[in-house]
Amino acid sequence: MTRLRSLSIFITYERYTMETLSSSLNKLSHLESLTIYNDNKFYTPTNDDEEGFVWNFVHLKQLKLEIYMPRLPDAQRFPSHLTTIHLENCCLKEDPMLILEKLLHLKKIRLWSKSFCGRRMDCSRYGFPQLHKLEFRGLEEWEEWIVEEGSMPLLHTLRINDCRKLKEIPDGLRFITNLEDLSVEYMGDEFNLRLSEGSHLTTICLHECHLKEDPMPILEKLLHLKEISLWSKSFCGRRMVCSRGGFPQLQKLEFWGLKEWEEWIIEEGSMPLLHTLEIESCPKLKELPDGLRFITSLEILTCRDMGKGWEKKLSNGGKDYYKVRHIPFVKIDDCVR
Fold it and tell me: In this structure, what are the phi and psi dihedrals at residue 234, rounded to the nearest 5 degrees?
């Protein structure tokens, strides 16, 4: 038993304290993966909770905790070779980044529902030297995030989901030249998309961000962008404009479920490398932009659930056929030309 490599515990039938949980696991020194789930009604709070757990797992690399734990232990008392950590329902009172950023081997972090109940997080200079992927989900009280230059230098992927009090993405992300993939979903009505022109993002997905202003003036200045997905309620305005010289590397563009979007302008010289365009369920958009005819690199156009008349307008002989006649593959409402 003491040489067990992987262990999952689901506490459902007996009361425990952090002290008893720690002592019962301390002998399993060979663990490489540990998961603990708990229904908090079985938890017995004590004064020792403020000290967190003390687990000396020399070989532990993956840790998932869904238990009430209002404070993390000091970095020195974390397993020294930890590469992945997932926290949920911990109800941490203090910023966990101050501890986690000192774990030198961490590559992936998930902070999910009620893992942190404070309002501000800070990522310090030189923190998280190996971090590749960072996910936030369902942090209901989180309002502010500061990222200092030199933090998370290897971060590649960032996911922010259902953090409705967070008003903007930190300006410090522009210093992370490895960051390529950004996904932001289910944010509050006051969320502001603020991305620096120096960003190295190649992929961005926005979903239910409730942006009131056209996101294109910001996105088109991200010189490395290759793929954009704007999904349901990501943009709640009526007009978008893609300017001359914008999106120099963009290859794929997706729109889905933008219910208020009415007008799209594409200026000549925008999106010169666009290969694939997909538009679905945008009922108020009456037509494709005239400027689409300038994008000679476009090879695939798909339009679904766009209302009556689209197929007729874009078919050979239709009034908008000139906009798409250079595209090798066009699919309109499941009818292929």
Answer: -70, -35
